[in-house]
Design goal:
Keywords: Isomerase. GO terms for molecular function: isomerase activity. Residues 20-263 form the Xylose isomerase-like TIM barrel domain. It contains eleven helices and ten strands. It is of the alpha/beta class. The protein has a single domain (2-277), classed as Alpha-Beta Barrel (TIM Barrel).
């Protein structure tokens, strides 16, 4: 298995150029690039060609563009804006060699029937699949373990991906999100390994289901999530994709980014060793 770094982990105390330097220093294989803030910040003083050149000459490679947000159940105007953003992300992903674009579902206080959520998600993901195919880029749906997210459990997300039925549409399995809304391990055991494109490794403090927020995340192995159970299950099913560490801990934003990126790697490897995952 390959180890990836998600830029959310140093969201407030670093930038893309620094993250790339430190990921190279500490031997990460991949990075997930935040397209809503870190990439635009980088492009203020660099070109996308500069980024492509970096990846050509470095060990670390781009795994995913993260993310196209709130892709489903949008107004006609908002959907069109999302599609234009997605097309731009495809151009950049192809340029730098990123394999995936992460798609995040709508978060809203408006009540939407599950059948309407599924209909919209399937329709939009199919459209994204068609757009992405000529670029050789895949779309990774990331369910979010929060009550107000329209797609918030593994079973719901996996059902949508299976209904889409495209080779270039799959899932981000985030261990925090899996735990946060009480996703069922039996649903994971029944899923096809090919449906899982990216595995996010993280942990959390012990708050009740439905009350967890991203800020509750802690170093892998330092919380209450059954990481060994989740990761060993997907490995047994044949998953051999990248494991990406993604934390949003406010305390970690106060640390030196070098310390954060090193500790994120060390704690992730400690967990992966327990399930005999090769890194």
């Amino acid at each position: 298995m390959k180890l990836c770094y998600n830029q959310a982990t140093t969201l407030e105390n670093s930038h893309l150029e620094k993250d790339l330097e430190l990921c190279e220093k500490h031997g990460y294989d991949y990075i997930e690039i935040r397209t809503m803030d870190k990439l635009p910040e980088y492009l203020d003083n660099h070109s996308i060609d500069d980024l492509a050149d970096f990846f050509q000459s470095s060990h670390v490679k781009p795994l995913a563009m993260n993310a196209l947000v709130f892709f489903n159940n949008r107004s006609k105007e908002a959907h069109q804006t999302n599609m234009e953003e997605f097309k731009d992300m495809l151009e950049k992903a192809e340029k730098i060699g990123a394999a995936y674009i992460v798609a995040v579902p709508l978060v809203t206080e408006t009540k939407i029937l599950k059948e309407d959520i599924k209909h919209s998600a399937v329709e939009v993901l199919t459209e994204l699949s068609d757009l992405a195919k000529p670029y050789g880029v895949k779309v990774a749906l990331e369910f979010v373990g929060h009550p107000q997210c329209t797609i918030n459990t593994f079973a719901q997300a996996n059902d949508i991906v299976e209904t889409v039925g495209r080779d270039n549409v799959g899932l981000v399995l985030d261990c925090f999100h899996f735990h946060a809304m009480g996703s069922n391990m039996e649903d994971l055991k029944k899923a096809e390994a090919d449906n899982i494109f990216i595995l996010h490794i993280d942990d959390t403090e012990d708050f009740p289901i439905g009350f967890l927020t991203d800020e509750d995340r802690v170093w892998p192995g330092h919380g209450v999530i059954d990481l060994e159970g989740i990761i060993s299950t997907v490995i047994e099913k044949g998953f051999d994709g990248a494991v990406s560490v993604e934390l949003f801990r406010p305390e970690y934003y106060k640390l030196d980014p070098d310390e954060v990126i090193k500790t994120a790697k060390d704690t992730s490897i400690d967990v992966l060793k327990k399930v005999q995952a090769v890194v």
